[in-house]
Amino acid sequence: MSRPVVGLAGCVEKGRFGNWNEVCDLLPRSYSEAIARAGGMPLVLPPHEALIEAPDDALRLVDALILTGGSDIDPASYGVEADPHSKPTFPLRDAVEVALARRAAELDRPLLGICRGMQLLNVAFGGDLEQHLPDRLGHARHSLRPGFFGDHEVRLAPGSLAARVAGAERHAVKSFHHQGVGRLGDGLEASGCSADEDLVEAIEAPERRFALGVLWHPEEDERSPVIAALVAEARAAAEQAREPAAAER
């Protein structure tokens, strides 16, 4: 079969190129490269108002969905006021991705949230966030150098989806974030934490075929098997969807 299509929720950021300084739909190329290496076809989905009411218009184009990293999520989307440390937000992106995540879960479409995407997944399922982890942890080791990913290890629950896709119960990861999940959303379980502290690093929905959030960035590590596992699941889902259609012909 042709490559399974993996949708990537796109960012909205100010961008400078040539003589122009514009608001852009964009995404780091590492995401599409990781999908392509794994045998998938990346498709960037820019946040657009129409997708809030009609997420199926985007989801019918893809076999799986990745909620990508980026800026902070608007605290209003989970019912609290902004912390002084919160960074600028883009509420339209939040609303679009909440709609996409909820509908992808309803359709049981393979779904992966990465860093901000893990946090968005938790919000979409009705949970909330810790807005500034250094306040609780007493350090900023997860966001030491702007523009650079830090290396550390995570511990993953035996038998969990997170452990299966990582291929081990301890996994070296690359991350950069100052927020994390707070109260877990409905139907979600914490399935991983940082190796040296009680910080949730992976969440999943056991009742879904593949709904996983990771606080690290597997697209930045060519050795990571996480995105390849999503692409494999997307391929399997696409093949299953085609079988009934073929039987009807």
Describe this structure as you would to a colleague.
- The protein has 249 residues and is α/β, with parallel strands linked by helices.
- It has a domain at 5-128 and 182-187 and 206-248: 3-Layer(aba) Sandwich (Rossmann fold).
- It has helices spanning 29-37, 50-53, 56-59, 91-106, 116-124, 134-137, 161-166, 226-248, and strands spanning 5-9, 11-17, 20-26, 41-45, 64-67, 111-114, 129-130, 150-156, 170-175, 180-181, 189-194, 200-204, 211-214.
- Strands 4-1-5-6-13-12-11-8-9 form a nine-stranded mixed β-sheet, with helices on both faces.
- The longest helix has 23 residues, at 226-248.
- It is globular.
Topology diagram in text:
Layout: E1 5-9, E2 11-17, E3 20-26, H1 29-37, E4 41-45, H2 50-53, H3 56-59, E5 64-67, H4 91-106, E6 111-114, H5 116-124, E7 129-130, H6 134-137, E8 150-156, H7 161-166, E9 170-175, E10 180-181, E11 189-194, E12 200-204, E13 211-214, H8 226-248
Parallel strand pairs: 1-4, 1-5, 5-6, 6-13
Antiparallel strand pairs: 2-3, 7-10, 8-9, 8-11, 11-12, 12-13
Helix pairs in contact: 4-5
